[in-house]
Amino acid sequence: MLPEVARDVTSPAPAPALPDAVRLPPAPRLTRARSELLREITILDEYGERRSIHIPVERPLTLFVDKRELVTLMTLGAMPELLVLGYLHNQRLIASAAEVESITVDWDVGAAAVRTRSGLVDIESRTARRIVTTGCGQGTVFGRILDELHGIRLPDPAIARIRQGMLQRMLEVIRAQDSIHRRAGSVHGCALFRGPELLMFVEDVGRHNAIDTIAGWMAIEGIGGADKVFYTTGRLTSEMVMKSAQLGVPIVVSRNGVTAMGHDLATRLGMTLFGRASNRHFLCYTGFERFDAEPEAQRPAVRVIADNPPPATAAAASDVPTQGPVSRA
User: Fold this and answer.
1) Which partner for 155 in 160, 240, 244, 264 could form a disulfide, CB atoms 3.0-4.6 Å apart?
2) What residues contact 280, with CB distance under 8 A and at least 6 apart?
3) Residue span of the structural domain in which 55 resides
């Protein structure tokens, strides 16, 4: 069972007093907003039968920072406070969770109100240039993030590595994970691993929302990414590679494929990307130097021969002369 990550805004847990030299920064106060994740509907299938199925409930969440409207996110709403915190962190609008005093989510009005401790410096110019990405439901990143990627340094391959057997154990954990996708489909999932241990699993209508939620959890808990592996069901676009790098995660695994820009960016950052990863199968796209391969024996190709070849094949075969007796003269 995953640890409880939200903190009640009305009753924060008291922290023991520490000397000023080592006093920990205060964590933001978070509401515990909850909403319906699945809705039951009646469908008519191809056999003419009516039956009930579940579908995910997508809803808008408008984000206000110090009473200034910033963006509207389309989300499943499983952990909206962590989504908001992770979004601000991944957009480089805050450097740490300590800059935020509180996050209040109210589903009755579909809004999240963020109150910072000292305001966000020059927020107008920092959010002026937007790039609409290929994220599900359309993701958005602010253009200045692209200019800051050169400052990201992932851990050295000598200390941040993954064995093939470990990769396959992680995929087994994901396959056994109970999920909304298994019940209703139409959502993406993201996960954070330390070795074979699943630390966090989140589903949302878009993969960018799911990774932002994990970023928010890491910020609240003070967890770094150097010894972690990030998993996603979505494709590895430049946006997903950027956000993974901002988490400090050097190894990323996807059930889907990679785009050319995502590949180029990961190569530049020294990140290891695995795609098409399911069961025991995978493709390592970049960062071979972090991967300790344990190759499996290749299965021999299976040739299927039809009992009754198609007429065209039979006709073609009849045009080939058979070899006659060999003359020994």
Assistant:
1) 160
2) 168, 171, 296
3) 26-149
Residues 174 and 139 occupy one common structural domain: no
| CATH number of the CATH domain containing 263 | 3.40.140.10
Structural domain count of the chain: 2
Residue 3: which of 217, 226, 188, 219 has the closest Cα?
Answer: 217
The predicted-structure confidence for 172-185, as pLDDT tens digits, reads as follows 999 998 888 777 87
Q: Which of 127, 149, 171 is the last residue of a domain?
A: 149
Rounded distance, CA 145 to CA 142, Å?
6
HSE toward the beta carbon, residue 4, CA cutoff 13 A: 6
The tens digit of pLDDT for each residue in 182-217 reads 778 778 899 999 999 999 999 998 888 999 999 999
- The predicted structure's pLDDT at residue 164: 94
Specify if 306 maps to a domain.
no
Note whether residue 21 is domain-resident.
no
> Which pTM was predicted?
0.74
Helix 207-221 to helix 80-90 angle (10° resolution) is: 90
The secondary structure element, H or E, covering residue 130 is strand 130-132
Any domain includes 249: yes
- Say if residue 145 is in the same domain as residue 170: no
Contacts of 226 (CB under 8 A, 6+ apart): 154, 155, 159, 160, 248, 249, 250
Q: What pLDDT score was predicted for residue 12? A: 41
